[in-house]
Amino acid sequence: MNKHYFHIVTLLIGSIIFPSSGYAEDTIGKENKVVLISFDGMRNDLAKEFIQDGKLPHFKSLMKNGVAAKDSTTVTPSLTAPSHAAIASGAAPSETGMVSNKWQDPNKELANGESAFHQPLDKSPLWAEAKKNGKTTATVLFPGSNPDAGEQADYAVYYGETWAESSLDKLQFKKTESWKHTENTFSPAKEAIVKLPLKKAQNKEIYILSLDTSDDGKTSYNRFIFSDNRSADSEDVTVNANEWGSIPVEADGESAGFWFKLKTDASLEKASIYRTAVTSALIEGPEGFEEELLSEFGFFPVQDDTKAFEKSGLLGKSTRKLVRVLSAGQLMCLFILKKNTSPIC
């Protein structure tokens, strides 16, 4: 992932339209679905450079067959929240109330700013106006679209709370006989414990069972089972050494989850686990929408871990592959496309 690409925020009013030759002629008289996708932190000059170098062929195709601005000017300050508030409403920061990424409560000390991403806009956004005019709308992580702030879309997915920050922890494996499992191990089974300091619940413990499944006469732990009750079953997560895995987490009826990578040698003498932050989601929509979305796609995708990236000495380059920056928008797009096939805009 290039350092100038941070995450994606998406506003959906239906499904995606890909312009093609004869696009205007083909769509005359038809009701179309419209999607607005924002690549946050994607510099205009670098994007043009990558397109010229052939690194963004789909962008080049859209520019060729659709409409592209030759020059663009952002608002001041050119921060995420103010910029997206302007995109959503067509108004300047002085009108939207989004003048920074931090919002200052007048009743609090100056240094105690709150995230502007959870605040409502002072100007009515596009999705609210479309909804007033009978359109079915959906928003995914678009600044100003927090469903707790009112005037939101019919379908909405937004950041919830961070239950636990990301972490890199050392693991100590010890012999264990308390597990119930069916896999053969050719070295004594060992166990390690990982604690999740969740804000929404008491600290949660995850037990890791290590197995040696290679019948080669050597001690080589290569199989790891993650469980909350020391009983390996079909719902537990199983990974091989140095592979990525993910674990869902629930607390007070809310769902979240995290991705992890267990790094170790064959003897388990040097073992550690990197874990992303545990972040919940705000999901609103018709009855059954949240349940179906979670059932279909799992927990809310994690964001990029910039704190871990700064500690490059601790994590390898492969860590960057974990950052599922497209996931939230993709999941919502897939759901809307799958569940709502009628023209809505």
Question: Can you tell me about this structure?
Answer:
By secondary structure, the chain is of the alpha+beta class. The chain has helices spanning 23-27, 44-52, 57-65, 80-89, 93-96, 126-132, 289-297, 306-310, 327-339, and strands at 7-13, 34-40, 102-103, 114-115, 138-140, 155-164, 167-171, 174-175, 190-196, 204-211, 223-227, 237-240, 244-251, 254-264, 271-275, 278-284. The strands form 4 sheets. A 5-stranded mixed sheet has the order 2-1-5-6-16, covered by helices on one side. It has a 5-stranded antiparallel sheet with strand order 8-9-10-11-12, with no helix packed on it. Strands 7-15-14-13 form a 4-stranded antiparallel sheet, with no helix packed on it. Residues 1-8, 14-25, 313-334 and 336-345 have low confidence and may be disordered.
Overview in brief:
By secondary structure, this protein is an alpha+beta fold.
Short descriptors:
five-stranded mixed sheet, 9 helices, disordered C terminus, elongated, disordered N terminus
Q: State the shape.
A: elongated
Radius of gyration over all CA atoms, rounded: 23 Å
Give the SSE string. Answer: EHEHHHHEEHEEEEEEEEEEEEHHH
- In whole angstroms, the N-to-C terminal distance is 33 Å
Helix content: 10-25%
What percentage of the residues does DSSP assign to strands (E)?
25-35%
Which parts are unreliable, with pLDDT below 50 for 5 consecutive residues or more?
1-8, 14-25, 313-334, 336-345
Main beta sheet strand tally, sense and closure: 5 strands, mixed
Structural class: alpha+beta
How large is the count of helical segments? 9
Number-wise, the strands total 16
Major sheet: arrangement of strands: 2-1-5-6-16
What is the average of the pLDDT values? 79
